[in-house]
Design a protein that fits this description.
This protein is an alpha/beta fold. The protein contains ten helices and six strands; from the N terminus they run αααββαααβαβαβαβα. The protein has a six-stranded parallel sheet with strand order 1-2-3-4-5-6, covered by helices on one side. The termini are far apart.
């Protein structure tokens, strides 16, 4: 029997063992396998290891997507997490090449993947509270939300968990430096049924405005002069 003579269910099962690139390569061989590649049922889980992978045409977004993970573990993450006003011109140029990739992708998810159950974002230093809040509003059935080393997350996302994350059972905000102990405590008091983990988040130094840095520097200078 030729591969293309198998029914759709069998082909979907075979495709499920392939990675994204292999699926796309196979789909280019004939229209029958292309139809399998484009079937939303094939794409229940998507995992990306860098924002650049979001630009590739080797996956399909659709209502069958249940689990999405964008986990970026790279030295560039350190640059992304630097406060914008402290970045050098070179660092800003480096970030400009990918800073909107994850945000734009999440916007597509909001419109195309209403049945998402879990979202995991790691090292995505450019996403904002609004990006994740929009996902919570659009994907009402979301049960698991994991945000690791996402420096722009603040207590606003925790408040959204309380207000609109009605089906959430697990929330992680590890190494998110702008999340406070008060925000964490608020979730635990108002939504005790949620498993909440905030590893080191409330213990990290939060962002500050340029003028605040100047005031601290001047105070230290005065202290050193008169001590």
């Amino acid at each position: 029997m030729h591969l293309t003579e198998l029914d759709q269910e069998c082909l979907l099962h075979l495709f499920s063992y392939l990675d994204k690139d292999s699926r796309r390569s196979l789909s280019l061989t004939c229209w029958r396998l292309r139809a399998v590649f484009l079937d939303p049922q094939l794409w229940t889980l998507l995992h990306f290891r860098s924002p650049c992978e979001l630009k590739r045409n080797n996956f399909v977004l659709g209502p069958s997507l249940r689990h999405l993970a964008i986990c970026w573990h790279s030295s560039r993450v350190k640059v992304c997490n630097i406060e914008d006003w402290m970045k050098t011109t070179f660092q800003k140029d480096l970030c400009s090449k990918h800073e909107s990739l994850v945000s734009d992708f999440l916007e597509r998810v909001c419109h195309m993947c209403p049945n998402l159950l879990s979202l995991s974002l790691s090292g995505c230093g450019h996403i904002t509270n609004d990006n994740v809040i929009n996902v919570l509003r659009s994907c009402r059935g979301l049960r698991s939300l994991s945000l690791e080393n996402c420096s722009r997350m603040t207590d606003s996302i925790l408040q959204a968990v309380v207000d609109i994350g009605h089906n959430l059972t697990e929330v992680r905000v590890d190494f998110c430096r702008n999340v406070t102990q008060a925000g964490i405590q608020g979730v635990r008091e108002k939504r005790p049924e949620i498993y909440l983990r905030a590893l080191h988040s409330a213990d990290m130094i939060p962002d500050s405005k340029p003028e605040e840095k100047t005031q601290i520097r001047r105070a230290l200078q005065k202290f050193l002069i008169f001590s």
